[in-house]
């Protein structure tokens, strides 16, 4: 089938669309009947979409991507699903959980030692007993998040420094935060950033960020000269 690519750089070949639709629904744990009911279409129509007999309309595809919480482009590229639908490995997840607990307690111990204060002094600022505070520092018991907030405050420790940003979970969290930040950008900025033709400009911006003040001033002066030349050219009569 014809491969259609938009200005955003996404490919919309329908070759794997049927597979993408079925896998996305199954990953989300939604039945054909439930999904058909949401769309207001017969169940056999959705089944025909999933077996490749018919192709949905654009409006239906947009609705299906919304129901499955999958980007529209991903429906056409189901090989990307392992990155979208992350199914954690239980052993790996439990091991990571234990590692994270040790990292947090160690970070608290280091911050505590830097204060030069006694357990009793710091514990008093958190509203905890010295005994409980020590058990938290030693990693003997899990620290409820509200207590962790108190402890971090008592140790003058930025809570963000305790957040995971390196593991698989941490990287996912960072990615989700970037998505939220992107969603908060002005609409014009979002549109600009999603246009493939504009991506080279972002490389220029990254390079400009690395320039020192002297080079930035020289660049700004060059822009001013260009602007003046352009203005002069427009004022010159033919």
What's the gist of this structure?
The chain folds into 3 domains: 17-84, 434 Repressor (Amino-terminal Domain); 90-162, lambda repressor-like DNA-binding domains (434 Repressor (Amino-terminal Domain)), CATH 1.10.260; 197-235, no CATH class. Helix 8 (119-126) crosses helix 9 and helix 8 crosses helix 10. The model has no long low-confidence stretch (mean pLDDT 85).
Helix content: 55-70%
> What fold name goes in the CATH topology slot of the largest domain?
434 Repressor (Amino-terminal Domain)
Order of helices and strands: HHHHHHHHHHHHHH
- Number of beta strands: 0
Assembly status = single chain
Q: Tell me the name of the CATH homologous superfamily of the largest domain.
A: lambda repressor-like DNA-binding domains
Assign the structural class, choosing from mainly alpha, mainly beta, alpha/beta, alpha+beta, or little secondary structure. Answer: mainly alpha
How many domain units? 3
Shape: flat
Mean pLDDT: 85
Could you name the ranges where pLDDT drops below 50 across 5 or more consecutive residues? none
What's the main sheet like?
none
Q: How many helices?
A: 14
Architecture (CATH level 2) name of the largest domain: Orthogonal Bundle
